[in-house]
Amino acid sequence: MAQHPEPPVVTIAPGKVRGFWRGTPGERGASAAFLGIPFAQAPVGDLRFAAPVPPEPWTDVRDAVEYGPTAQRGDPGDTLIPEPSIPGEATLNVNVFTPTPGPGSEPGAGLPVLVWIHGGGYISGSPASPWYDGRAFNRDGVVTVTVSYRLGFDGFGHVPGAPSNRGVRDWLAALEWVRDNIAAFGGDPARVTIAGQSAGGGAVLTLLGMSAAQPLFHSAWALSAALGDVAPERSRTQTARLANLAGVAPSRDGLASVPEERLLELQHTAATTESRDPLAGVTELLEDGLSWGPAVDGDLLVQPTVDSLRSGVGGDKPLVLGSTDDEFTMVTDSAAGKLRLVPAALALGRLRLFGPTRRAYLAANVAQRRKGTAAVLGRYVSDVVFRSTVVRVAEARTAAAAAGTWVYRFSWASPTRRWALHCLDVPFWFDCLDAPGVGAIAGDAPPRRLADALHGAAVGLIRDGDPGWRAWSSDPGSTRVFGGAASRPDVEPDGYAEVRALV
Predict the structure, then answer these.
(1) In this predicted structure, what is the pLDDT of residue 280?
(2) How many CB atoms lie within 10 A of CB 93?
(3) CA dihedral in degrees (37, 43, 44, 48; nearest 10)?
């Protein structure tokens, strides 16, 4: 009778942690998981609006076999990525997946490390998604860490008398934890790649452009990055509105007296301008960006991220970034019938795109116009929020960075949702096509070769500092296309020409 292997135990700075094996140790594909390890104390009570505080040490072996509490509360509903909420107060925790638990025999002998930051618009999301399991990266010799952070107002809102950008400080604390402890799990703290999708991709770019983060990682991959860069005045205005809705003073004590759940209920209203225009929310997003997220505070973020990258911050670190072709076009599908007879130019005017810019944009998107006005509107929102960021960052880095910048597009269209939509690339990047929920977005037979290509490129960056195609930084415009039509080259000379009018 086969014996179960002994659970792996490793010693980190606060104490010992016990994980569990997936597969038989020593066999290909086997790895160990350590879940819910605190990197900071629970952000409650006096610590609610404080910077993260290191965890208290423990003496007994601590079980790390279940995901820790998440900052996301309640049922998130039907989401593109399954990201469960887990109740509890100790929401600042990490999950580690490793093929070789235990320190290396020699200094510098550890494996490269991937640190993943989840998305969710900075107001939702969870590191406990089955899609973020590091099993495939472990198979390819990469230790994987997923991190949690405070969300919404508690993480990013302006609180007078409290540290700014508390969610950003959580990212920094998690990376410091990785630096100090990852060798115990077989990882090399000198070879850390940060990666994330959507708000997580925005987090990656924020950290890349932040001086305080520079010693903590060595390369970066941003999928569909949604930058925050919330302006200071907007942060203060939203806090005043939120406090007024909650019936308290706009102070640290006043806001701390309101339960977290109540602030979560009110934060959307506080960030939304009252209007009878049904498109007001969309135009506000396009013009002002996300309501909650990293704010330009003059401390951690001294200037907007693209400006920081243009000045050379993070320029010594290899970067890969890209987007799906139609991040949000599925949202406008429901309006396709109503928009069938509406000219695309008129519809874009409702979103305040006018004049030469509108003409240039429509001229560059002839193929999308053939799919109808709803498709044009969806592509335009995708371009403003996500795809134009790719070009702006790549061009900023080309002017200042010493390390390479690689750009890609994910063009394979979902057989169930019609478009190459937001989040569709994530299970291919993680090579987790058999994970729960993937079929809903990628169909019953997602192409294995596409996962091999995209995941392989990720491993190439993490392990070798090069994803494997011509860099934009040496050949501006050069773009790797994942999952494009058979008639399209794998690398296009100007893969984001469609968005240049918006940059």
Answers:
(1) 67
(2) 27
(3) 180
Torsion of CA 17, 194, 288, 334, to 10 degrees: -80
According to DSSP, the residues that pair with 96 across neighbouring strands are 34, 145
- What tokens appear for 119 in the block? 């998305």
Contacts of 107 (CB under 8 A, 6+ apart): none
Chain segment 22-81, per-residue pLDDT in tens = 988 878 889 999 999 999 999 999 999 999 999 999 999 999 999 999 999 988 888 999
Q: How far is CA 28 from CA 24, 135, 138, 141, 460, in A?
A: 9, 11, 10, 10, 19
Tell the burial category of 273 from Cβ atoms under 10 Å away from its Cβ (0-12, 13-18, 19+).
Answer: exposed
Q: Which two tokens stand for residue 146?
A: 């997923």
Active-site residues, by number, are 198, 327, 422
The count of residues in the chain is 503
> Residue 225's closest CA among 418, 66, 2, 389?
389
pLDDT band for 403, please (50, 70, 90 cuts): very high
The helix (H) or strand (E) run that includes residue 266 is helix 260-270
Question: Residues 238, 158: contact at Cβ < 8 Å?
Answer: yes
Domains of the chain: 1-280+295-317 (3.40.50.1820), 318-502 (3.40.50.1820)
Instruction: In whole angstroms, give the CA distance from residue 495 to residue 113.
Output: 30
Strands 15-18, 9-12: parallel, antiparallel or unpaired by DSSP?
antiparallel
Contact (CB, 8 A) for 372 and 380: no
CB-count burial class (<10 Å; 0-12, 13-18, 19+) for 345? middle
* Close Cβ partners of 3 (under 8 Å, ≥ 6 residues apart): none
